[in-house]
Write a structure and sequence with these properties.
Blueprint (H helix, E strand, L loop, with lengths): L30 E9 L6 E7 L5 E6 L3 E7 L3 E8 L2 E10 L5 E8 L9 E9 L5 E6 L4 E7 L2 E7 L2 E12 L5 H10 L9 E8 L6 E7 L5 E6 L3 E8 L2
Antiparallel strand pairs: 1-2, 1-16, 2-3, 3-4, 4-5, 5-6, 6-7, 7-8, 8-9, 9-10, 10-11, 11-12, 12-13, 13-14, 14-15, 15-16
């Protein structure tokens, strides 16, 4: 059986009743500390716990299966080390540009199986003036082009396919936004795909049906649940102290 992890958003490649502990909080004042993912047809749950350092940065993400990702921060670099027990699974370096977004990503995967060759890949990101992504180039020469409108990434194209995104334009992006979470659990909060509004869904032209997400908020506006029409759901829990 496929293991359920913190991330279930496998439809798209970009390298491509929980509540807040205080009722008087507002989005942005609370820290996301716990995420549970579920997928219809699977008996497993993916449980993800998030720990922060004294400066409010994510220092550790622990998955229910025992996998951990430890984060270290340099002046302009976020280092992410993922391990299963004593074995290193992957190592990632996120270089932060002057605009506060990821300019370069370097990924290293140790040689865990034959032919025992370590794999290293890279990606370079270019942005528009409003910090929306305009282009991503891999070290192998693959190029992905992104189109934006009104602060939202509305599509990207590469490898012969085009993915189109839709948004709740009356709601701002925040913790619990599915696309933001997909980056946070891997990078500790270093972002490259950033839009102004809350992600509604996407479709891959001529290849896949429309994927749509609906969100549930608590009384303070924090997103506590996201559910897709594909049977994937996320429950979010916060620390508002």
């Amino acid at each position: 059986m496929q293991r359920i992890t913190c991330s279930l958003l496998a439809v798209i490649s970009l390298s491509t009743a929980m509540s807040c502990t205080q009722n008087n909080s507002t989005p942005g004042q609370c820290k996301l500390v716990h995420v549970t993912t579920r997928s219809s047809g699977h008996s497993e749950e993916g449980i993800c716990n998030i720990t922060y350092d004294n400066g409010g940065k994510i220092k550790l993400i622990t998955l229910s299966g025992g996998q951990t990702t430890t984060f270290r921060y340099g002046n302009s670099t976020v280092f992410a080390y993922t391990s299963q027990g004593s074995q290193m699974v992957r190592a990632d370096s996120f270089i932060i540009g002057t605009n506060g977004m990821v300019s370069d990503l370097y990924h290293t995967q140790p040689a865990l199986s034959p032919p025992y060759q370590q794999v290293t890949t890279s990606m370079h990101y270019t942005y528009n003036a409003d910090k929306t992504l305009s282009k991503a180039e891999s070290g192998k020469g693959d190029v992905y082009s992104y189109q934006s409108k009104d602060g939202d990434i509305i599509s990207f194209s590469g490898n012969g396919t085009t993915t189109v995104f839709s948004y709740y334009t009356d709601k701002d992006a925040r913790d619990g936004d599915v696309m933001k979470w997909e980056q946070v659990w891997a990078s500790g909060g270093a972002l490259y795909f950033k839009s102004k509004h809350l992600l509604k869904g996407w479709t891959v032209k001529n290849m896949a049906p429309v994927v749509t997400h609906t969100y549930t908020n608590d009384g303070s506006g924090n997103i506590i649940k996201a559910v897709s029409n594909t049977g994937i759901s996320y429950d979010f829990s916060y620390d508002c102290n």
